[in-house]
Specification:
The protein has helices spanning about 1-5, 25-35, 50-60, 65-75, 80-90, 120-125, 135-140, 170-175, 175-180, 220, 225-230, 240-260, 290-300, 325-355; strands spanning about 20, 100-110, 115-120, 150-155, 160-170, 205, 270, 305-310, 315-320. Residues about 185-190 have low confidence and may be disordered. The chain has 14 helices and nine strands. A hairpin with a 5-residue loop joins strand 4 (about 150-155) and strand 5. Strands 1, 2, 3, 4 and 5 form a five-stranded mixed sheet that branches. A two-stranded parallel sheet has the order 6-7. It is an alpha/beta fold.
């Protein structure tokens, strides 16, 4: 829609002040914001689906289930070599400060047991945080059980080593939309002075789908589970599902509350499908058939009504009389296009004034 409004060269990075992502979302966010040799985004949004269709089966090679269980007893399900080489090939030597718009990617440091959030804001202030984009993409997608943890070092301002021992950011922030609204360092002044200022934000939060509505687990079954069952049950990982779904929902709840209180709930759009089932709900079932089914599901979400979290039940519910997700995205695109025009106009006026003043 942005390309219909502003031309075929329009890219998401031209419109959003910050693009954030965790795990596979971190890789997508980087693909959309990292610059090519001409200073434009490496990937357009239309390139994401072909990328995943091509590479996912190699990232998640399907094996015999018993062999997989034996492998998981002594190490991660996948060695991650293909994914790491792929990411390094995409990102090259690009660093955080080079992104076209601000990028934010959460990770979790398994040594300090603390969240470690990487952002362009920090990279512009602290050389020790201006890390390789490839290192962070690998780190934020190093999901426990599935991929090995990732270690790397940088240099601080004094030339001292600074080490990171990182795993998937979903441990701390599977839905980073709330973090994306909080600039740090010198940009902290951009934080709203009060809740009413949240009306100045436009937030689009896109999930990768869950199977919550299927209610696959229950306490009677889980009471009998041991380590292996918690890590691998019917092709899923209940332990990972539990903590990733939970912290994503908490972010959605918090943002829904903020925008509702501010009276600008339409400025916040969360698109998520909680009705995935079968192989489509698996974290790593990357067969050609499953991937194509996910594409169909994604396109189908466009025609579904807008949904929001009920602040009392904490469940997402369809909203009456506000249209579909597609209609909401068209509305967002028009707001973003108009905002971009206004900013461009102000920059030109500022430049003219400055030249005239000189």
């Amino acid at each position: 829609m942005l390309q219909e409004l502003d031309g075929p060269e329009a890219r998401l990075a031209d419109y959003f002040d910050t693009i954030a992502g965790t795990s596979t979302g971190g890789l997508i966010a980087t693909m959309l914001t990292a610059p090519d040799q001409d200073g434009r985004p490496l990937y357009a949004a239309k390139d994401i689906i072909p990328f995943y269709l091509e590479h996912s089966p190699k990232i998640f090679p399907q094996r015999n289930e018993i062999l997989t269980l034996l492998r998981m007893l002594c190490g991660p399900k996948y060695d991650g070599k293909y994914l790491r080489n792929l990411i390094r090939g995409i990102c090259g030597n690009r660093r955080f400060h080079e992104t076209i718009t601000h990028l934010l990617i959460p990770t979790y440091d398994i040594k300090t047991l603390e969240p470690q959030v990487f952002s362009t804001y920090e990279a512009e202030l602290d050389p020790g945080m201006d890390v390789l984009l490839s290192d962070i993409c690998i780190s934020t997608s190093s999901a426990p059980v599935y991929f090995p943890a990732y270690f790397f070092k940088t240099k601080d301002c004094d030339g001292n080593d600074r080490e990171f021992n990182l795993i998937d950011g979903g441990v701390a922030s599977n839905n980073p939309a709330l973090l994306a609204m909080r600039p740090t360092g010198a940009n902290a002044k951009l934080l709203p002075a009060n809740v009413l200022d949240y009306g100045k934000y436009i937030v689009l939060s896109v999930g990768t789908g869950t199977s919550k509505s299927q209610r696959k687990y229950n306490a009677i079954k889980a009471a009998k589970w041991g380590l292996i069952s918690w890590l691998c049950k019917d092709g899923n990982c209940p332990l990972v599902d539990a903590f990733t779904f939970a912290n994503a929902d908490m972010a959605d709840l918090h943002l829904s509350l903020l925008f509702s209180t501010a009276g600008h709930i339409q400025n916040y759009l969360r698109i998520q499908d909680d009705n995935l089932s079968g192989e489509a709900s698996s974290t790593d079932k990357a067969t050609k058939e499953c991937m194509e089914e996910l594409v169909k599901i994604g396109k189908g979400i466009l025609q579904k009504p807008i949904s929001r979290m009920n602040l009392e039940s904490c469940k997402n519910e369809a909203v009456e009389n506000e249209g579909t997700n597609e209609q909401a995205l068209i509305r967002f695109a028009k707001m973003l296009s108009e905002e971009k025009r206004l900013r461009t106009k102000r920059m030109k006026e500022k430049k003219v004034f400055s030249n005239g003043d000189a």
